[in-house]
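User: Modeling request: complex.
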Amino acid sequence: MTGPTPAQDAPLLVLEDVEATYNHAIVALRGVSLAVRRGEIRALLGANGAGKTTTLKAVSHLLPAERGQITRGHIRFDGEIVERTSPADLVRRGLVQVLEGRHCFRSLTVEENLLTGALGRSASRSEAQTDLERVYAFFPRLKEKRRTSAGLTSGGEQQMTAIGRALMARPRLLVLDEPSMGLAPLVVEAIFSTLRKLNETEGLTLLVAEQNSTVALRYAHRATVLENGRAVLEGPAAELRAREDIKAFYLGLRTPHRDGPLGGDSRSAA
Amino acid sequence: MEDVQFFIEVLVGGLLSGVMYSLVAIGFVLIYKTSGVLNFAQGALLLFAALTFVSLHERGVPFWASIGLTLVLLAILGTLIERVVLRPLVNQPPITLFLATLGLSYVIEGGAQLLWGTQVHGLDLGIDDVPFEVGGVLISSFDLFAAATAALMVALITLFFRYTRIGLAFRAVADDPFAALAVGLRLTRIWAIVWTASGVVALVAGLLWGARLGVQFSLSLVVLKALPVLVLGGFDSIAGAIIGGLLVGATEKLAEVYIGPFLGGGIESWFAYVVALAFLLVRPSGLFGQKLVERV
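Assistant: Request completed. Predicted assembly structure:
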């Protein structure tokens, strides 16, 4: 699914010194730089409030929808300047995000949720059907629940639905925000091993923000650590995993402030 | 026996006139569900639609051509509203958006009258309002026609929401706008379509109300009748708008007949608001509305 591109060795996603604020007042990112290579699984680690969610929202150009803005720096996805591309166009070009807290369409069935993922790229009915079967092959559990309202399924099934919905858009870069949040360890393993399978069999590039650094470092190739809105450390996952001090320094449970004014629970009852 | 028959007659008359309220309320629900905006301009939209149709028809444009042209104008208007009013105000608090639609309603009303003049137009849909008898109960044939039209429209809207891709996109946006954005749906386009759709609903409602009251400025005031319907039924439920309309229609007529004499009559015009107020105290989200749940 990764089409041949002229510069195969150029990073798929580049952030250059990105500074971001909410309401022009709260500074959430103070200069984040990172480059995600094609075909890798990149983990984005950090404590609560380090800027993981803001970084990902900036990447998908979703900050304006939450009254946030990029005040400095640039983000490029496959050469395209993200700040000048609408979220819908980014999805069409292959940058798709699975939001923190899953954000399934609760009143829609699991299958309808998946189909909304194909709406964005205006897939034909038969294309959507093919992709649907592909998603069901990765997550057989969803096939059993296809007619159930997403709001009535378990947390793990909702996470699978959210990932499946993103896959329906045929991403080249899949961005995931805290996929392990609130899930039982076994379910977390199942989800991460499916992500690895997607990476290995389809060459899908992944950028995963995780608070659960233990799991993330086991599945990722490389990891970037954020602290106070800055990327402070980067290296191969195996290396970081071996260093106990990193956990104590950067990934502890210090919580100076939340990720943004709205955090992940921005869903008001509309 | 005669009392029972009279009661039924009043009840049926009330229910059928309630359908007309539902029609207006559905236009509100469509917009509220998908964009969270309480569109006060729905009445003005209704006036605009009816006035445009009548004026075209009076100038010799055939019936269906007038309908078609009016629909085109409504689509243009819907797109304009999204572009000029909603898009710059996206992410603003609901009260800001509400006030914007309040202003918008004056602009549309003014524009409609500037374009087509201010005189009252008669509108004849070709349905004779002769009452006929069913088992001793008199029923207005116009009311019945209005009810059938409303039922057809609701059926079409339901099918549209359930089985088309745009319908799926609507439901997704109504459910979780932020997720819809992340999935790649173009919210602005969907809003333009929703405003057009509620313009279509306004046209149908406007024609039926116009045939009854004459097409004139005061037609835009039927929005005020839709408010108690929405309070009763819930602002985000089409089923609620229908049931709410029926309830309001029936209670208003029954109250007029059975409670009215003790209060000197004329309570029909305000009784619905009393009911709505009482209802607000007991069930603020309406019969079918989504409960407001704040996660903390």
